[in-house]
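Usage example:
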Amino acid sequence: MKNSENQKMEVSKTTGAVLTVILTILSLTFLYPIALVLMNSFKSKLFISDAPFQLPAEGTYVGLTNYIEGVRKTGFFPAFGRSLFITVASVAVIVLFTSMTAWFITRVKSVFTSLLYYVFVFAMIVPFQMVMFTMSKTANDLSLNSIYGMILLYLGFGAGQAVFLFCGFVKAIPLEIEEAAMIDGCSPLQTYTHVVFPMLKPTAITVAILNAMWIWNDYLLPSLILPQEEGTIPMVIQNLKGGYGSIDMGAMMAMLVLAIVPIIIFYLSCQKHIIKGVAAGAVKG
Amino acid sequence: MQKSMKRYFPIFVLPTLIAFIIAFLYPFIMGIYLSFTEFTTVKDATWVGLSNYKKIFLDQNFINALVFTVKFTVVSVVTINVFGFLLAYILTRGIKGTNLFRTVFFMPNLIGGIVLGYVWQLLLNGILAGFGVTLSFDAKYGFMGLVLLMNWQLIGYMMIIYIAGLQNVPGELVEAAKIDGATKMQTLFRIYIPMVMPSITICLFLTLTNSFKLYDQNLALTAGGPGRQTAMLAMDIFTTFYGRVGWEGVGQAKAVVFFLMVAVISLTQLYLTRRKEVES
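Running the assembly step on the lines above writes:
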């Protein structure tokens, strides 16, 4: 942010005004697809595919029918609850355990810990498809096919990037602070909770945001692990598409709106953290 | 300190390590082994050597998916990064409403691939209806649709990273260039772009891997249609695993090849762009 002041007066007033107009039009274009879905969610399903650009009118406006129908068909609210539980619990578990692991493998120097570090980094570049089949078989064998099992799988699959990000930060913490705490009689666990973790907070926020974005929106992993009738939001939306590609467009529009609204509310309420977290995560990645 | 810490291994490392072994390490090693076998339930795997790998390159579906994915990735990476950088450049000039614009452009990134796919399906089918066709009429519509969707989703994300990079360009450097009589274009190409090379490295990496590995958006927008003409690699691997009985081993071999491609592409790109980074 510090340099934005220097750059303030770089464009003339007219150029500035022209750019503002262009950017405003572009912003509206960016918002348009979502507005279109919102508008169509109030139209009868027969008039959505055929005339998506027509505003709801006398014969086509159906009020909340699509919402009621969609929620009933998909079981949207239980799915929402499952998505929320899996995301919140997994993010908490990932932040807690991977930060501990990162601290340990950075501070305890041995062949084993440095090997571990490289294996975690390696895991970051492996695409999900590589372990898709064998991971779901393993999860099956260990009876992890539940929202609780999902937390363990997310911890395992998210560990690579999270450990990597935390390690980058732990390296920058001066060792003396921790040593002082231990000389004062703190156990390693107390040192971690009272001294190390508070210093890791900015990275913890970055890790939490990156993982929350990934887990909340993830489709493939839950669709392979969870029973069909206990799906997350992306799963129930995908399931609306019936056999032979037929879709109840009314219910689909309404469910898309219900899926997007919580994200926008969350985004607007902690936008600063999200944008900062994303930028910080990228610089270190 | 090391000694007292070591005793805490079960608390600090073990939970992450166990989860990591279950969710990643064991499936990864098993995956490599299974790619050399024929199996339907893992337990009945029989060694077949390289025969799965040979089948991959005779499989027209895989070749089509590879070509489609490469084309899609090239077009997406170029367009997303050009537009993302352009927006970042404009939005660091101190124009009114900058924060609001940033907020709007970044937002699509938070919406998941499945949801995005259906949002764009509505919009694009609506537009194409004016020409009497749909997304599934011809692969070129699916291709353009996916590129548009991907741009809409990732431009804001890349913009945020480029903004962070541009803000780290020292003001004095730009000032000095101006005094030396550099034009706006010269300042852009000689100062800003070299100075934000680290951001370019990251953005290229993110767009490259995200485009190459795309699945959710592909599934929701076109589901591979018409036929399997717009199925990308990730989708082809999925259908090989779960849609063709007896082809599980080939699916796993495809996954290994896919992993190697992602690894080689991303490491090469990181190596090439890292070399271009300059110290400020």
